[in-house]
Amino acid sequence: MVPERIKRLLRVFCTSLLLIFATELMAQEHSYAPADIDNGRGLFQANCLGCHGDAGDAVDGANLSTGRFRRASSDEDLIRLIRTGIAGTPMPPHTGLSVGQVRTIVAFLRALPTGGGVTLVDDREVKIGNALAGEALFNGETQCSVCHGVNGGGLLLTPDLGGIGAQRSPGSLEQSILEPAAEVRAGDRFFQITKLDGTTVTGKLLNQGTHSVQLMNEDEKLVSFLKSELSDFNFVASPMPSYLDILNPDEVADLVAYMISLKGENAQ
Amino acid sequence: MRQFKMKFMLVIASVIVSASALAQVSPERLLNADQEPENWLSYSGDYDSQRHSDLTQITTDNVDELQLQWVYQVRSRAGAAEKFEATPLVVDGVMYTVTPPNDVVALDPITGRVFWTYEYTPSPEARVCCGRVNRGVAIHGNTLFMGAIDGHLLAIDARSGTLKWDVELGSAALGYALTVAPLVIGDKVIVGPAGGEYGIRGFIAAYDVETGEQLWRFNTVPGPGEAGFETWEDPEQEAWKLGGGSIWVTGSYDPDLNLTYWGVGNPGPDWNGDSRPGDNLYTDSVIALNPDTGELAWHYQFTPHDEMDYDATQVPVLVDMNWHGEDRKLMLWANRNGLFYVFDRITGEFLQGSPFVEVNWMDGFDENGRPNQVLSPTEEGTFIMPNNQGATNWYSPSYSPETELFYIPSWMDTYSVYTKREVTYIEGQTYVGAYPTMAMPALGVNQTNVRLREEGFGAIQAFDPQTGEMVWRFEMTNVTDSGVLTTATNVLFAGGREGSFYALDARDGTMLWRQSLGGQVASGPMSYEIEGRQYIAISAGAGLFVYALPE
Questions:
Q1: H/E stretch holding B166
Q2: How crowded is residue A243: how many other Cβ atoms within 10 Å of its Cβ?
Q3: Separation between Cα atoms, residue B304 and residue B371, nearest integer Å
Q4: pLDDT at residue A58 above 80?
Q5: Which candidate from B2, B9, B14 shows the least CB-CB separation from A246?
C-alpha cells in the first residue's frame, strides 16, 4: 500500500510533467516576435474589428478573446479558417491576406490576456542573471520602483511592469533598460507642448486631434490644449534614464531576469 | 549610491511631493460646493440637490445666442434603445460621465476630446426593468464611483481610468442592479440597489471609499427585529423577503443636521398588494439617516401600501427659506403619486401637501399627513390618475433661491387602468402583477406622437412652496423625462421627449431659446465654467451636447 503522502507527491509530479509538456507544445505552437503581434493588431483592427469588436468578443458564440476556438485547435487551423471563412455564417473568406499576414493576426489573438499565451521569440543574445538580485536592484539602487509599479504602486505616468515578463522578450527587456527611448509602447509615449508664451508642459500623451492635444501632465493631472494656443508640440523620447553606463552587464542580466519573472498578478 | 543623470527623477520627485497637495475632491470641497460654481461635484451639483447654478454669464438677455460647442456621441457598445441618463461631473477642468450601460469617460470640457475611457461590460445576468441606464459617478479625492447595472459598485482612478476596487452589492441574477449616481459623504460612498420589480429586498449602504468595505446598511424593507417590520402584516412573515424598496436616485445631505435623505421605491409585487398587507415601510417613503451610522432619524411614507407603482424615486430638495413668516429648514418633494409636499427636514413634520396634476386616488390628508386613499386596483380594473409612470419620476426638479419657486418636470393629467391579478414569485423573473394600461408609453420609443391632449401631455411647472399653488406652466405636446436646471440669472433649462432642449425665464416660463437635439432628453442639465466661459451640458439621445455663448 502506498502511503497517502507519496501518492500526493506522485500526483504533483505527474501534474508538473504534464504542465511541462503542455507548456513546451504551447511554446512551439505560439511563438511570435513582438513585431508580429503589433502587425497583427493593426491587421485585426483593419479587417476583423468591424464584426468582432476591439476586444474580439463582440460576436455571440465566437468570442476570440478566450483562446478557445470551436472550429480550430492549432494555429494552422486558425490561419486556414480565417483565409477560407466559414460557410453558412457571416464569417467571410479573407483570401486577400497572405498566410504570413494571417499568422500575425493569430499572434495578436494569442497575445490577448486570455488568448492562450505567447512565447515571444527574439534573436538577440541576452544574458539572463539572477531574478532575486534583480528584484533587489529594482527596488533599491536603480530606483526603478520609484516610477514603475509592479501590480500597483508606482506612478500613473509610467507603465506598470507587473505583467511585463509575459508581454516582452528578454531582448526587448534588455534594450529597454539600456536604450529606453529605442521603443516606447504607443500608450506610454510622452509629448511636450510649448505655449505661445514659451512655457512648456510635458506629459503622457492620452489623445490628440487636429485642433487639440490631451496629456497627463507631470503632476498626473489631465490637461488639454488647443493647438492654436501652442507654438510647438512634439513626441519626446522616453524620460527614463539609460542604465548603460550605470549598471554593469551582470546587474543588467539580473534586472532582465527579474523582469522575465513578472508574469502578471494572476500568473501561476 | 551612484549618481546618474535623472532629469525625469526630478520630475517624479515633484509628482510625489505635490500629489497630495493637488486639487482632489476632499470631503470639505463637497461640503462647500456652493463656493465653486465653476465645478459640478455631485449628481445634483450640491448636497442640497437644488440643481441650481450660481454662474451668471448666461442670462435671460443673451441665452438666445447660445452656440453648440461640441457633441460627444456614445459608442455603439450599447443598443440604440438605451437611454443616456447621466449628469456629468466637472472637476478642475475634467468632465466625467457614464455612457450606457456602464462605460466611464473622462472628457476635456472645452473640446469634448477624450482623456480616457473605462469600459465595463456588465454581467449578462443583469435584470433590467427599465433600460440599462446609469445616472453618473460620484467623486472622492481622485476616485470615481460608479454603480453598474449588474449590482456592482466600482471605484475608478479619476486620473488614469483604471479600476481600484469592485464590490458586488447583490446578485444580478436576483435582480439587484445599480442605476443611481452614488453620494459621497466624508469617507463613505452611499448607494442602494434598484430591482424592486424582481423581488429584491432593498437597502441603502455606505462603503469605505478606500477599500469598498461595507460600513453600514439600512434595510429599506425591515426584517424581524427591525423597526417597521410590523407594517408587513402577512401571517406567514414572508412578504418582506421580496419587499422591493429600490433606490433609484441620489439622496441629499444636510451637514448641519448630519442627516442624509433618500427616496425609497415601491413595494413588490407592484400592482397586487394582497400578499403584503400593511403599510409596507419604508417603501414609497423618504428616510432621514445619520450618514455615520445608517441610523434612521425619521421617515414619511407618501403612499402607504402602494399598489400603483408610486415609487418615491425623486431627489430630495433641501431649502432654507422663510416659510409663512418663520425661517425653516424645509424639504420640497414632488412625488410620483401626483402630490407636491413641504416637510420640516429637522423633524420630518408634514407641513403641506397638494396635487400638482390631476389626482383621483386620494382625496385629502389626515393631521399627520397620511393620505386618504379612495381608489385601488381591482379585478375588473380601476381608472386611476396619475398613471403608472407617475406625475413625475426620477427626473430632477430644481429650486431657485432667486425666484423661491420649485420647478417640476410633470406628466400632466395621465391615467392608468390598474387590474389586480395573481402574482407568483419565480427567482430572477419580474414580480409585479398585471401591467396597467395607459395612453402614455413608459419609454419614449415612438418617433411620432398622435395622442390627444386629454390622453396626457408634458410640462415644466413652477410651484410656490408657500402656497402649494402653481405659478406658471410651460406645456409640451409630449411628456418629458428631463431634469431641470436653474441659474442665478433666472434662466431655466429643460427638455423633452420630442428631443427639444430649451431655456425658459424662471420667473414666468417665457421661452427664450430652443434646440432640437434629435433624441429624447432623459437626463438633467448642468452648468460649469472654464477660463471665464460658462457652459451648459445636456445628455440626449445617444449624445452629450455642450453649449456656450460666442467667444
A1: strand B163-168
A2: 20
A3: 8
A4: no
A5: B2
